[in-house]
Amino acid sequence: MDIPHDLIVLERAAEEQRARLAGLDGEEFDVQHRAWQEAAQAAQAAITDHATVSGQSAEAVESEVKRAVRRTEEDPAE
């Protein structure tokens, strides 16, 4: 399955927002949680759109996107 780069970028951005939640509490946590939710919703909407256009299941596309994000994060050349 060929995953568009923009889907990987959106998923990575959502994961980065999620990671920023660590150690926060109160208002800071609430603000960051909203940022994470917005980023995750944008990634999910793009995945769903791609799945619809490509005729694939959203679950399959999401799985491939997450796998691609993990591969790029593990790449020692980056």
Can you offer a commentary on this structure?
This protein has three helices and no strands. It has 78 residues and is an all-alpha fold. The two termini are 23 Å apart. Residues 63-78 have a biased composition (Basic and acidic residues). Residues 53-78 are annotated as: Disordered.
Compact description:
With 78 residues, this protein is mainly α. Helices cover 78% and strands 0% of the residues.
Key words describing this protein structure:
78% helix, single chain, elongated, 78 residues, mainly alpha
Label the overall shape: elongated
Number of β-strand runs: 0
Task: Indicate the percent of residues in helices.
Answer: over 70%
- Determine the mean pLDDT: 92
Q: Write down the Rg.
A: 14 Å
**Domain unit count:** 1
Q: Which parts are unreliable, with pLDDT below 50 for 5 consecutive residues or more?
A: none
Q: Approximately how much beta-strand content do the residues carry? A: under 5%
- Classification by helices and strands: mainly alpha
Region (Disordered): 53-78
Biased composition (Basic and acidic residues): 63-78
Task: Show the helix and strand layout.
Blueprint: H1 5-19, H2 26-54, H3 58-74
Helix pairs in contact: 1-2, 1-3, 2-3
